[in-house]
Amino acid sequence: MRSLGAALTLCTFASVVGGFGTINEPHFLQQHNEHEFITRLAFQCPVGQGSDGVCFEQYSLDQLAGHHVHILGIPVPGLGSNGAVGAPDTFDMLPEGPEAHCDDADYLDVPDYPQSRAEANAKLQACIDHLRIRFRQAVNAASRLLDERNRVQKTMVRLISAGDCTFAFPGLQSELSGRAKCAVLEGFGRALHGIQDFYSHSNWVDSHDPSSPISIFNPPGLAMNGVAPFLDLRGNTTIPADQIPRNLTTGCFALPDALLGSGECQGRITHHALSKDKGRIYLDGTFGDVDFDLRSQVVATNFPLAVQAAVEHSRMVWADLRDELRLRYGSVIGDLMICSMVHDDPVRDCRKRTLAIAVDTSFESELSGGMAVEELVAQEVDSRLSINGQDRIALITNQENAALRYPMGPPSAPIFNFSHSPAPLCFGCSLELAIAETINAQAETYTDRGAILLLTTGAEPPNQQAQTLQQLARAAEEGIRVHYACITMPNSHPPFNVPDNPKRARCSPFDALVPGILKTGGIAAFINPHLAARAPAHFADTIMDRGLTATDDDDATEHTRVYPGVALADFVSAEHPSKSFAYAVSVGEHVNLTISSVADGPGGGAEGCFTVTLWYKYLDTVIEMHPRCGDAAPLELAYEATEEFDLVLEAEIDDTPPRDQLRGQEEILFLVSIDTDMPEKEEPAVEKRTRAVGTGAAYGDGEFASCVVPGEFDSTCGIPNPLATAATSNLTAGVTAGGTTVAGWQP
């Protein structure tokens, strides 16, 4: 709605108003954020629920609809935001004209009316053409929502951390600059504004005063059911004349906006005579008082009918925009763009990831209790997938006759209850099926969005390794990240023979598949639930910390977190010269860090050198530094902390030979593990569960074994040499190599 009062208070309210009210000023301008409430009615999500792909979540809706402030129940003009839908009414150095509000298309079928039907149609066409430009602005701006790998760009969609969008001065803005989400919302919101104003400014849905004769003060009402078909923003043609009723009119607007008209509006149907702008709208779809609109005072249903038509047509425009995005960019990419518009955190919720989990269902895994732990691990990882963000999961058996137990579907639906299989372990078989399932799930966008998790309690037979390595190389080429976890169970090697698979070997960091796993970008871990009952949860946190898929890389933390009961294999190379790991120590906690070279065996790395640096406050204070070369004995570092902080361990390739000479050579593999006397303390979570995993999320009865098993290799301890000597650091005495005290460490 526009008014003289609004024009006189521009400096106070920083707003002009057109059509339905935009600002929050019920006392002088009789406006109650009508545009905001119409837009909220059209697009709000049910209370307490996230977006279903159509409704807008809270902060995104705030940017589209606007948000305003009340203090002690009194509206405060000028506080809050008019949003994208209110942008055409916002004070602007380069304001939009009557075409933004569908004004001036007035006509009355009487002799000598100042404007002909054809002239009125031309004004209506100008309005539609303008709104089509705004609609296309939204479509064009969407191209910047995703990067070249079709991932949502954080800098283009962030709202909460970056503040409200700025929609003023449209002549100085472009869909090719600024935050893409704001640009899409601006084009969409400005188009919605004109659509909503049409029903406020025209006689399409309303009725005239039956007690007064038809005149410029009481133009005929069309009382039409439904929306105007010619307001088609996807079209590019002239409105067919037969779609415009002869008596259709909007109001002529000029200041001052009076019933008799002023300036060029003298003797014409005015905005003041026809508009249905001022009334209270509630978010349950009901209405309050109608204030000063003449048209609504004479027929009380006029304002509600105009609002209802505006809500219906707003939803149609959003449906049209979604269809146009899919048509322009393809259905898959279009859906990602739509997702990024309706979600407040689209980087998290619109990744559209897939995860295939392969579980070792062998007799040995079942008899040792390992299968139950694998199920816990699978539940923990599944619980961190997004319910609303199109993440999907599949469950597969990790055997020679790999079978799909749960086809790719919602992460809230699978049942983690496997039965044993007599077939031998075959990682290559399950990888082949998992890759196929990943590609079939989203053929156009699986690259960088797919992940596979291999779970096992033992090593596969040597005759299967070639197939496994082949499938790992294929996964890396396809951009599918593969994670691996071997569960160490005390009874994983029973004294009796398991049918069809006698004397299955333990898995270890020397296994040939470990480098292949790491080269896909995945995690290779060795889990001992007896060292920490929450080891399954810790492993799930580790995956999310490093990045479940390549799509998550931008959200990956600076350091990979390590947890008790989870030993990690990793590598450094010329291409990846350093890796860092962090553990949040607590006051009084005793920790034992073990770093081992993995230089022998089928999966061993190159016998190069790397340096291990331990940091108190990363890049601030070095606690100590150790060179590691070839198959040197494992390094064990023991400490007691006197304050809380992140202890950071950094492995960096040795600079002795120039790095450019090392490029292309083999990676230097190593194993990192941590033991602590506080294995069950709460750890910082990178990606929290989206739902509970039920009882049994922790393993065991709370009794934890020692990390070092004399004379036997326990992969979670990270000590593959039983003759290794523990290099307990003098830093437990709080002294650095230079003799200065290190804060945080207890003598």
Give a structural overview.
There is one protein chain. The protein has a domain at 4-342. It has 747 residues and is an alpha+beta fold. It starts with a helix and ends in a 71-residue tail after the last strand. Helix content is 27%, strand content 17%. The chain has helices at 4-8, 10-13, 34-43, 58-65, 117-141, 154-157, 180-201, 271-274, 294-298, 302-329, 331-342, 346-349, 363-368, 370-383, 427-441, 465-478, 513-519, 535-546, 659-662; strands at residues 24-25, 31-32, 67-71, 74-81, 279-281, 287-290, 354-359, 392-397, 404-409, 450-456, 480-487, 524-527, 560-561, 566-572, 578-585, 590-598, 609-616, 621-629, 635-640, 645-653, 668-676. The protein has 19 helices and 21 strands.
Helix content: 25-40%
Report the C-alpha radius of gyration, rounded: 33 Å
Tell me the structural class: alpha+beta
Q: Number of helix segments?
A: 19
Shape: elongated
The main sheet comes to: 10 strands, mixed
Q: Could you report the average pLDDT, rounded to the nearest whole number?
A: 81
**Which regions are unreliable across 5 or more consecutive residues at pLDDT < 50?**
1-18, 25-30, 493-502, 657-665, 701-747
Query: How many angstroms does the end-to-end distance come to?
Result: 75 Å
Strand order of the largest sheet: 9-8-7-10-11-12-14-21-16-19
Give the total of beta strands.
21
Strand content: 15-25%
